[in-house]
Amino acid sequence: MTVAAEGSPPLRAKRAAAGSLLQSEQAQGMALISPTLLYALVLLAVPVLVVIAHSFWTQDYLTIDRTFTLENYRLALTEPIYRDLLMRSLYISLTVSFFTVVLAYPIAYFISFHGGSRKSLWLFLITIPFWTSYLLRVMSWKVILGYGGVLNSGLMGLGIIDEPSTAFLYNTTAVILTLTHAWAAFTILPIFVSLEKVDRTLLEAATDLGDGPVRRFLRITLPLSMPGVIAALLIVMIPTVGDYVTPRLVGGKDGVMIANAIQAQFGKAANWPLGAALSVTTMAIVTAMAGVTVFILRWAARRAR
């Protein structure tokens, strides 16, 4: 009876189905991505989980107390200094994202629609400044905005001032300007790729129907390139909130951001749980802000059509 049962048609059908499942394209695809997925989980998900776990603990100098508590989140959300730093960071992030996209869109538009056979050359030229170190570019802006500025040199040459001024340095404006330049290429490229996918025949049809350049742009080009705009905004918005090198070098006390406070908690302050709570709070707020931004832009794109 056992041999008969094993050789029964229903059992053979189940075995054949299992064998075909293992040999299917889905199974082969999962086998291919499994190492990458495991790699991502180990290097991305596990550190985030460790940070989240630390945010519910407390620390007394070098001793970690693993008793569950929400005190760190209370400090992160109610302490004026952390709240102000977070609000400033969000303001800087949104401002930098807006300016980079506004400045990058015309450049990407020109390359896509008027670059002709020199599109690759234009893109190559755009990336040249980014061959140098990020730190070197920030330091260059520190020189430009501070002691080496053209305005400083002109005023000193005219005898109006005796020493170079740092009025353009160590403030929020300096941080915004430096970050806008630092992330410019990362916004030009996704917008360019999105514009390249715009069907030119739609623009020709709109012209035949009487639409002018502005109307064609607002009703066809801009809505169809919105995926690139959204990608550019997210590429800039998320990392700039966590930037602490630029505020430290060109921001001064008026340009410090939340990342500097987080770095201090993991450094000299030696309060990892509070630093973890600040990190988690910032991640949650930035995620919500990015989601709202994407929703609004998609809604605007649908309305424009």
Automatic annotation (TrEMBL):
It is a multi-pass membrane protein. GO terms for biological process: transmembrane transport. It comes from the Bacteria. The chain crosses the membrane at residues 37-57, 90-108, 120-136, 143-161, 167-195, 216-238, 276-301. Its main location: membrane. Residues 86-293 form the ABC transmembrane type-1 domain. InterPro entries: MetI-like, MetI-like_sf. The keyword Cell membrane applies. GO terms for cellular component: plasma membrane. Belongs to the binding-protein-dependent transport system permease family. CysTW subfamily. This is Spermidine/putrescine transport system permease protein. It comes from Neomesorhizobium albiziae.
